[in-house]
Please model this.
Amino acid sequence: MPALSYLNPTPGSPWDTYLAQVDQVTPHLGKLARWVETLKHPKRALIVDIPIEMDNGDVAHFEGYRVQHNLSRGPGKGGVRYHPAVTLEEVLALSAWMTIKNAAVNIPYGGAKGGIRVDPKLLSLNELEKLTRRYTSEISIIIGPTKDIPAPDVNTNPQTMAWMMDTFSALQGGTVTGVVTGKPVELGGSLGRVRATGRGVYLTAREAAKTMGMPLEGAKVAVQGFGNVGSIAAELMAQAHAVVVAVQDHSGSLANPAGINIPTLIQHVRSCGGIAGFTEAEAIDEESFWGVDCDIMIPAALEGQVDGPRAQRIKARLLVEGANGPVNREADQILLERGITVVPDVIANAGGVVVSYFEWVQDFSSFFWSEDEINLRLESIQLGAFRDIQQRALALSVPLRTAAYVIACQRVLQAREVRGLYP
Ligand code: NAD
Model:
């Protein structure tokens, strides 16, 4: 593994992108710029070895991480990802984006993230449970309801969180529901959590479109990633009478200018594991997806998916970042020059962590809210934060991303300053 220096990122990597984003906002931070290096150094990064006995009797070792980027505003908060491409540097960037996101929507958390380098599709359910429990046990020294609260991310789900909660509780000798969020509802999970990120993507897209004078009804939408975030955003878009004209996932790309039937596609993905083979739309090649005729593009798969050449081809007027970091540095500049409005990830996909916050609050009080109440509070926090960002962007004449970072970095660094340094 190449040595990782926080200040020498791999060029073009998510951490490189993040550091450039921080540099971009520094001139807007005034006296708080004195503290800006705080944002370039993770507070704590743990690498763990996860040995498990496989079903065939072999012992396999996996590498896992938990990074707490910044804890100035509260305990760490951020998901756990299972993916073959997970690296410490990737988790570092994802944890930093959580610091920014939690501050941008003003919930009382720092930023953290975790991950295991594994292809979960190659593991049985039994092996996945062992992997999750051993990982939880290894990182248990730094997580907890007042320290750092993991949640689902790519390839992890409420079942993963149930195993994490159970393992942590067993180690503590008592029920600790608040150690993770995104749990099953039977176990202290919150109503509305599973759909919250997709709902937030939809809400911010709707609000941004409204500002641009673009009615959602009849708007043509393309969605990359048809998992938890992408499929729900697509479903809510379709319910608002937008026309989902193209979808892409790891298995293929589909287009239908008359609109793809999203509930039917969701059923297809449930039974086939991907969108490939869906017959009610035309299969197109991976690169053509980026050039489809659409008004709104929602990348909701993985980071770095929109590079320079793809940014040149996008026809949409509005791009809403469902995924974390889907647009790389070069592409961000191209989209800006082309006049395409980008709603940044730190606000667009914050719905999941906002409802995670509600879950954590409900767990502390052991008193649970109705789904309507949760959706109303989500809408109020997310749209309130989005409007603040829009206003700041106008006031500073900067893109929405820069405005979101200015607001977030000011909150984090104000907390840092008022807490002071110890000793
Ligand atoms: P998921 O595992 O449910 O879905 C991921 C989707 O991306 C799948 O449809 C998969 O096929 C697709 N995909 C993977 N590789 C691809 C590729 N190379 N090309 C095209 N499609 C590809 O994950 P998710 O929870 O929907 O997360 C998606 C993104 O949203 C991630 O960046 C994640 O960090 C971010 N996010 C998720 C949440 C949440 O609550 N789940 C919250 C905030 C941000």
